[in-house]
Write a structure and sequence with these properties.
CATH class: Alpha Beta
Structural class: alpha/beta
Number of domains: 1
Organism: Subdoligranulum variabile DSM 15176
Pfam families: Lactamase_B
GO molecular function, one term: transferase activity
Distance between the termini: 5 Å
Number of helices: 7
InterPro entries: DHPS-like_MBL-fold (IPR041712), Metallo-B-lactamas (IPR001279), Metallo-beta-lactamase_dom (IPR052926), RibonucZ/Hydroxyglut_hydro (IPR036866)
Protein name: Metallo-beta-lactamase domain protein
Length: about 280
């Protein structure tokens, strides 16, 4: 049995006791393990877990999809409270400083801690550079082939040392693939490398259909033509269920409601789903 619960997301749900903020965090139970996929931006992820009766000091490990603050900064709060498990899984280059650059000023978007912080709290660090098994029927996937011409990264995202930054290619981004009886369930953080690039890589390296996707697809800046092309291509890889949230955008969610045969939902704070 696989269970996924949203601990943090942009939108509130019917559970008004929970806090919503710009960010993402899923609690995952799969392969005999209990772990976090992303941690939100701060202590409110812990607050929501407490309100939901979830003890984050008892999770096995944490995965950060990439090092932007809204997915990774909350790990500092977790670690300082003895939560989040004894190992942090990331992609390569996770410690590089990331910014948004508007042509004049830089805004730091980084996680806000480094490798020394992990050592201080006796937390191991493991890096996924391609395909990394986590548990039975559970893998991290990275190193996505960039093949889709219209999946480009906005130039405002940069990394490195000011003022000598370079365009951020998000080579640190990873996703989670879970085996079910119907195919793979994939969790994504922000899909900066392109949701099609990412899912196509998962489909090819694991040689299985992708049955469901949950998380941020970064279609927030896409027009209807791109949304349609994306969904159509995902369906060729087996997609049946699509749970959009975080950076996916209202246009994509509305388009799915009006034009798609997919089973679609929004995974707001406190929402849960399970698979055999």
């Amino acid at each position: 049995m696989i269970r996924i619960m949203t601990l943090m997301e942009n939108q509130p749900s019917e559970n008004k006791a929970l806090k919503a903020e710009h960010g993402l965090s899923f609690l995952v139970e799969a392969g005999g393990k209990r772990f976090l996929f992303d941690c939100g931006s701060g202590e409110d992820t812990l607050y929501n877990a407490h309100r939901l009766g979830v003890d984050l000091t008892r999770v096995d490990f944490t995965v950060c999809s990439h090092s932007h603050y809204d997915h990774a900064a909350g790990f500092r709060d977790l670690a300082e409270q003895g939560a989040g498990g004894g190992c942090l899984y990331t992609g390569p280059g996770f410690w590089e400083t990331k910014y948004a650059f508007d042509g004049v000023k830089y805004t730091d978007l980084s996680a806000g801690y480094d490798a020394d912080f992990l050592k201080e709290h006796q937390i191991a660090h493991r890096v996924c550079e391609g395909l990394l098994p986590l548990a039975e029927g559970c893998w991290l996937v990275g190193n996505f082939a960039r093949r889709t011409a219209f999946e480009t990264i906005p130039p405002r995202f940069v990394k490195g040392e000011i003022p000598h930054t370079v365009t951020d290619d998000f080579s640190d981004e990873i996703c989670l693939a879970l085996q079910t009886s119907r195919g793979l369930v994939v969790l994504v953080g922000c899909s900066h490398p392109g949701i099609l690039n990412m899912i196509r890589t998962v489909h090819e390296v694991l040689h299985q259909p992708v049955y469901a996707i949950f998380g941020g697809t970064h279609l927030v800046e896409a027009d209807e033509a791109r949304i349609q092309a994306t969904v159509t291509e995902l369906q060729t890889m087996g997609l049946t269920v699509l749970g959009l949230c975080h950076c996916s955008g209202s246009l994509a969610e509305n388009w799915l409601t009006c034009h798609s045969s997919l089973q679609a939902c929004h995974m707001a704070v406190g929402d849960c789903i399970a698979f055999e």
